[in-house]
Every structure is written in C-alpha cells, then in structure tokens.
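Question thread 4412

I'm putting together a teaching handout and wanted feedback from people who do this every day. The idea is simple: show students a protein as raw sequence, then show them the structure tokens that encode its fold, then repeat with a second protein so they can compare. Below is the first pair exactly as I plan to print it.
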Amino acid sequence: MLSCRDVVIEIGPRRLVSGASFVVDAGVKSGLVGPNGAGKTTLLRTLAGDRDPDGGEILRRGSIGYLAQDSMIASVDPSTTALERILTARAIGSLEREMEEVRARMERTAGTQRDRLIRRFSRLEDEFSAKGGYPAKAEAKRFAAGLGIGTDELDQPVVTMSGGQRRRVELARILFADTDVLLLDEPTNHLDLDARDWLIAFLVDYKGGLLMVSHDLPLLDEAITTIYALDHGTIETYRGNYTHYRVERRRRREQRRKERRRQEADIARLEEGIRRFKGSSEKLAKRARSWETRVQRIRSDLVHVDRQGRSVAVRFPEPAASGRTPLRATGLAKAYGDTIVFVDIDVDLDRGERIAIMGLNGAGKTTLLKILAGQEQPDLGEVVRGHNATIGYYAQEHESIVAGRGVLDHLREVSSLPDRELRGILGHFLLADKIDQDAGTLSGGEKTKLALARLVVGGHNVLMLDEPTNNLDPQAKEALVDSLHAYAGTLVLVSHDKDFVAAVSPDRAILMPDGETRYFDEDMLELVELS
C-alpha cells in the first residue's frame, strides 16, 4: 500500500504538486494523467523514494516496483545477460552466475581444491533452490517471452542491447519481482503489439496497487479504473477509465464555469449596490458595509476555472538545399562482441524523400540510424555525406540532453542565434518558464520538446528521428506531424507509433535486419505495430 498526505513537490522555485492526498491500495488500478511538464514523472519518482517530498508525508507498506521513464541500466555488469538481469529481481541472478563460475572452475581443477569447490557449489545450489531458483527461472523466461524478449536475447549481454530491448528487460524484471505496488512510467514505450496486449492482460489480473503514467490512451481505457489528473499543481480524482475521465472532466469544467459566472455576477451586483449606497444614510451605508463583507467572502471562495492551455508550436525553418543525394552508405556491418546486428547494408537517400527504417525489436533499426547520423561507427562499410548535407539527429534516449546544464544552454550549443530568439523558440515548445532549469530535471515529454527545439534551431536539411513521439502528449505529437508535413528536407525515421508513421507517409522503407529497400505502402503499417 502507498499513501500520500498533503504532499508538496518543488523543482527550484517552481511548485509542481501542492497538497496531494490519495491512496494506491491493493486492487486499485490508477492512471496519472496531465500535460507534459505537469510533474507526473517527478511525482512518480517521489512516490518510489528516489527523491524526498518537499512537504507532506508518504507512507509505504510492502514492496514497490518502479519503472522509470529513462531506465538506462547504467550500473549493470558488462557481462550480465538479459536473463540474469531479470532474475536479480528475486536475488537469484547473481547466485546462478556464481554457480556457473564455480562449475567451470571445478572442471579445471582436481584434488582437495576441487573438493572445496564441490562443497561450495552444493551450498550455492541449496541456496538457489531454497529461493525457488529453478521454477523462478522458468517463470522469468515466461515474463520475457510475454514482453517480446526472444530466447537468443536472454543470453545476450544487456549492455549490447538497443534502448528498446533494455527497456523491455527492465520492465520484465520489475513485473517478475512480484511487488505489492507497481509504479510504471510509460510502460508501453518500445513494446510491439503482442507485448502490449500481454502487458494489458497482466495489469488487469495484477492483485497489487498500480499507478501508471502513460500517453497510451487505449491502455488507460483497458487497464485502469481510477484516474488522477495532475494540472497546475493540484490532483483531481475521477473514478473510471480514461474515456470516462474525459467526459467527466468536460462536465466538471462546464459546471465550474457556470458557478464562476454566477459568483462574478453576484460580485458585480453587490459592488454596484455598494457604490450607490455607501455615501447615503447610515442605514444604507451599514447595508453597503455588509455587502463589502459578502464580496470579500465570495472572492475568497471563487471557483478556479482552467485557462485554455497554450499549444506547442513546432516549425522547422526552410533548410538550405543539399545535393541530389545527401547521404550514401555501402556495405555497412555492425556487431557487438559475438552478436551480429546486421551485415552488408546499403542506403541511398534522395533529396526531400522520407524513409522509414522498419523491423522487429532488436533488428538493428536504432543502430543503423546512429551510423547514418555519424553517432556510431560501422565495423565494415562507409557512410558518405553528399554536397551541403547537414544532419540533425534525434536520439530516443535523449543522449543530447545533459544533466547539470540549463535548458537555454542546450540551444546555445547548437545555434548562434541571439538569446532573445532562442527564448522565443523555447516559448513555442512551452519551455519558456524553464529556461534556467537543469535540463536533467525535465520530464520525458519536456526533454523530447527540448531535443526537437535543438533540431529546429540547427536548420538541418536531413533529419534522423528515433522514436520522436515517445512521451509526447497528443497535442504535441499532432504539432510535430504538422511540422514534418511542411518540412522541405530529407527525413529518416524509426518509430513504433503506427499512427505517426501513417501521418508522415514515408516514400520508402528499409526492412531490417536484411536492409532490403521497398516502396512504402499501407500494408507495412502492420510491421510498425510489431516493431
């Protein structure tokens, strides 16, 4: 169980949450919604214990599983496999690794040393069995399979995996831990259609308490029974799924508007009476003073009405023209240790075209995009940029956003425009009030907007985008689509968002891991859902 009482959360001078009180109890399936930057991710981090609240009290009973939005598995041993990482959730992954190491040493030794190793192996195996090691190992494999982690991937070192693969390994580890409360931040990022369906079924049957942040609206409809809406620092509770929340929110807003209009009409009527009678006879002046008291009371109880929120405005400037072939790659190959990602890949970009790199998770889509963008070097082959080609790269893990550096400084790094113009661009991305904020403290959606702002000021004529819609709210995603429709440069895209890919309308697709290039058609959208 997890309980919040009058919780306050602040980032610098800005108050994100004020006086939040709610309970996540066993069987409660709740979703936390709100616009990008409202404080959802920071609230989840605070509930998980990654930071202390700035006021109020958080009570935690039982075990908590927390999937962070930016799970990078930074501290894992380079040799740890995906299966071992999942097993660490129940403290048996390291035991199995130690057992294998002792077994290998047993085969190389003899005599009394081998006898000592046999006894040590026996103790380790007893501990492994006592912790349910063998059945748990089979269960961990079922969790992995449900989330689309293949048998070969389970034996792969985590550090060699793509961002999407690592994210699924972390989700499997947290679900496998069998905790009393789950705090999940964008759990469907990088999940294909089958894995997403498996996750929904798991969450529907989950007996513990659940609090989830997600822009996956169907997920909020299918797995959630309570919505907590965070906006302007306050949390409002809605019983029901996301669809019910949207209907009820409109009803409540209209009710508040009516009440506010009634209050303002009462104030206007009383103030008119005050002006007429305040200087009159003592009897009328006394009545006017009582009306002043009523006006003060009404003003103190004025119903808050949400203002119409500003919209994100994304517009890529007209780029300088590149040559007819802005980029050509031949014979590309990449491997991580013994894991071969792809071999013999050729890519030719034509000026102004849109290409989608497609394939299943782990097929090498992100790796190919990084190589084309110059962020990573191939083991074989070469990439040649054409005349006047300038490449802007958007990384799915926000590697370009550096903690400890301010938001405005991130634009200064990539643009010589005066600060006045850079501030204006940040305003279009709804980041004007965060100019001096440490970029590492931004929410996932805000980091996405900052990374897109860096692309805008760069004036590139080739854009390479890796999962650019992750963590974006619906309005911001729509703004991004509109901006790409108007963009005159060349676009290379990796995305698992079927609607986004359909809206961008690629000209061609590169199918990984074979690297076959085909003209794009709508039937390929099924592959997007599986990617």
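The second pair follows. I'd like the answer to focus on this one:
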Amino acid sequence: MKRLKKMNSVKGFLAGVILMGTAFMFIRATTSDPYFEISKNLDIYTNLFKELNTFYVDPIEPGKLVKTGVDAMLRELDPYTNYITEADIEDYEFMTTGKYGGIGANMQRKGEDIYVADVYENSPAHAAGLHPGDLVEAIDGKSLKGKSIDDLGVLLKGSPGTQLKMRVKDAYTAITTEKLITRGEIEISSVPYAGLVGPDKTIAYVRLTQFTQQCGNQVKDAFDSLKRVQPSLSGLILDLRNNPGGLLDEAVNTCNIFLDKGQPVVSTRYKIPEMNKEYKTTLPAWNKDLPLAVIINKSSASASEIVSGTMQDLDRGVIIGTLSYGKGLVQVTRPLGFKSHLKLTVARYYTPSGRCIQALDYTHRRADGSVGLIADSLKRTFKTRTGRDVLSGGGVEPDVKVKDEPISLVATTLYSKNYIFDYATIYASKHKSIPDPTEFSLTEAEFNEFAKWIESKDYSYKTETEIQFDSLKSTAIREKYYDNVKSEFDKLETRLSHDKKQDLLKHKEQVKHVLESEIASRFYYTRGRMAQTMQYDKELAKAVSIISDPIAYKKILSPSK
C-alpha cells in the first residue's frame, strides 16, 4: 500500500512537471523571458526522470510513466486533445482513412469465449466462410480462452498478404475446422447504404457514417448511382445521424455536392490570426436545385455539424431530427518523434452565418474541474441567407424536430445480454434466405417462437422507479425509519415489481424491430441492417413527407413574418 501511494505520488508529481514543461511548447508565455521558462522546466523534467530511473526502489516503465503524466496534463484541456502513442497510431489512422490490415470481422466476448460478431461483405473473413455466432477457439495455435478483445485485435491485424490460422466452431453445424485466412486491406466505407425512398421511389437517400478520406466522392458516387436508376429524382436525403465527424476538408467536399462553386462553407479561427482560414466550395455542384433534407441527432458532431449548419445557414436544405452534439472545435496532429503524435485542438470553426456551435465551455471550468454548457446569455442570434434566425453555442437546432423514441429497458437488456444476437444465429441457421431487408419482417408466429425461447432466459433488470425505490429503502434503513413503515414498503415493492413477460408484450414492436435488424444483418450484412430499420424510421418518414410537399418545404426555409 505504501509503495502504491508512493507511485501515485510520483505519477502525480511527474504529471505536474510535464504540465509545466510541455505546456510552454504550445502556448505563449506571459513572462518577460519565455525561452528561459521553457528551458528551466524541461531541465527540471529531464533531471526528475533521471533521478527516478536511477534511484527509485523498484524498476519503472518509462513509456507508461510518461503517458500517465501526459494524459494527466491533457485532461486539463478538452477531450479531443490526446497523446497518440506508437501502439495507438494504427487505430487513429483507421479513424481518418477507414482502412486497416486484417480479416474484416468484428469479434465479441461472451464469458471466457470469443465469438464472431460481424463479418464485412467481400472480406477475407467472408471468403473463408466465417459468419456471426461462430466460436473462435484459437489463432495460430494460441487458445483464445479468457483473452480480451484488445488481445485478439493484435492477433487479427497485420499486413495485407500475411496469413493466420483460425480454429473455429461453426455456429450452424457445430463442426470445428481450421481455416487459413489471408489478411487484406480492409476498407470500411463511410457510405454503408444508399437507396431510393418515397412512395414513388424518386427520392435519393444516402447514409454517411464518418468523414474519412474521399467520403465526399463516395457520397457523390452514391447519388450518381441512384440517379442512373431513377433519372427523375424529386429530392435528396443525407443522413448524418450518429456521425461523429472527421476530416474538415471532406465536410467541405460534401457540401460542394449541393452548393455551387465559390459558396462559403466554414471558417476557422486560430490563436494566431494569420492562420485563420475560410473554406469555400471549389467545384460546380452535383445538384444545387433539388429539395434536400439532412437528418441529424444528438450524436451528429463536428464535420456533421459543419455540413448541416452550412445547409441551414445558406437555406439549401431542411434540417430534421434532434439537436446535434455541439462540437465547434478543430484538431490537427503534430509529430512528436518515434511514431508518436499529439492530436490537439487548434481552432474553432464558424458556419457561413458566423456562428460557432460549440456547446461545452472548456475554457471556463467550474471550481471542481467540471465543464458546463455555454451560458444562454452568451448565445447569439445569427441570420441565414434568407433571414431566418439561428443560434450559436449549442449545436445545430433542426428546422423540424422529431423526438427520438427511447429504447425500452427490456429491448436494451435483451440486446446487451446477447439474446437478440443468439436468436438471430438460430434463425439464420434455419433459413437459407429472407426477403429484401426493406420488406423483411417477422411473422406473428415467428415472434411468438422467440418469446417462447426467451422465457427460460434470465433477462431481469431494474426499472428506474425500482432503482429509486431501493435508494429510498436504503435511506429509510440508515435513518432508522424503515421498521415503522416496513408494511407500506412491502406493499409498494410488490406493486412496483415488473413482469418480464408483460414488459416483452408491452414493448413487442420495439423488440421485434431490433431482432429483425439483427437477422437482416446475417443475410445482407451492414447494409441489410440499415435497410431493414428504414421501415420504422420516423425521421426518414418525416424527411420524405417534407420533400414530397413543395409548399411545406418552401415554408420551412422562409423567414417567419
């Protein structure tokens, strides 16, 4: 315990020294001689590290200790400023490129075992015959029993062209085989689904999940493909829900699909004014006239907000959904040597109207170090091109709000405990095919089979009311009131206790939709999962109805009188 306290003390002190030393490399010192301050603090840091390495009673891990200190320093800033070690750089590059070397499958852990969770279409894993539900027993002769997903990632990833041996127990046949899989360059498309929607199938719908390299061209190509199928398009829908953002240049390129050459998209403002930059579209628009709807939600962030905010500011399209995340900060990466990098926030971005949509104020932290929202008093009103009011400092407010339907506890529990996953495997083993995912749905009899199967499973959970009741009961016991009101507590507890079977019936449609999308993914992969959920998509239905009504569309984009 003493040693642990001592190590924590050393880590804390080192973190403070790193904070003092490294911070001067990135901010302008206010002293009369900033170079002396830099030199002094770096000398202190170097000497401290030498002393630790020479005299500390136990061996130290230099890399781990430095990362602890750096992470402690960066926690004082914003969550987007991160130290990327050599070991983490591949994951970071995947986030920006969508590419990595591997077999093209996601894994999940259940107990001590590793199972295939998803297989990417046309990947090496797909070619090898892997499918969700398979039990992965060993890789290159190494048992996976008790291994973490991180451990597994090290074994699966590698240079394209290299091979691995995987011992797999097939989920459908229960036969164990050894598979030789050649790794390839896996590219996860940022456009996993595109299709024609609407009563007459004349509206082009494209889903964009992340702003990676070339994603603007991928979106354009998707719209092109849909136009070849349906030359008489009546509208466009860009779905940015759950899109966390990515590359700023690709946000500009995506806007250029709908805006003509020379239109303002976003401006960035740095600490050093000479670095400020304004981004405009550089090419003719793919289409600047068709009605456009952009769908967003609370997980649409950063580059997603540049696109949706720009479309709103220039009155180019109607924004539908819920308030976006509110990330108005720009990051770049800087090399630190030895293949490590610093990703740091260097600027704020502003949409064409001049607003910054950053919601959290990292500059003015509370006394306890927590971060609050931008105060309403600091929010400003800006005008769109036609004169509509839009606010800064809190994300992109949709023109048409569609409230998210909360996921029920029973559906969440069935999914998190893998019962949805397991039953989809059972269903897929009994069916060679299913209808197109846009039309597939479980029959009443099929859902009843699932309900019967789930009866013997433990999917117990506590409702929020039950959790609050338990807290009240604990408080009453602690304060010695419980014995006097025990009978009342018992009666209330009985009335509050929920019936799992009744909960399943109450939320039947929601559970059914979750199960259907999982089953669709077994036959049509990621695109099947997305296509199937579109049948019940309220936001998409709203977008279709607005685009199909020119009068309503025009009214939304007109300033109120």
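Top answer:
Good format. For the second protein you could add a caption like this: The longest helix spans residues 508-533. The two ends are 70 Å apart (CA to CA).
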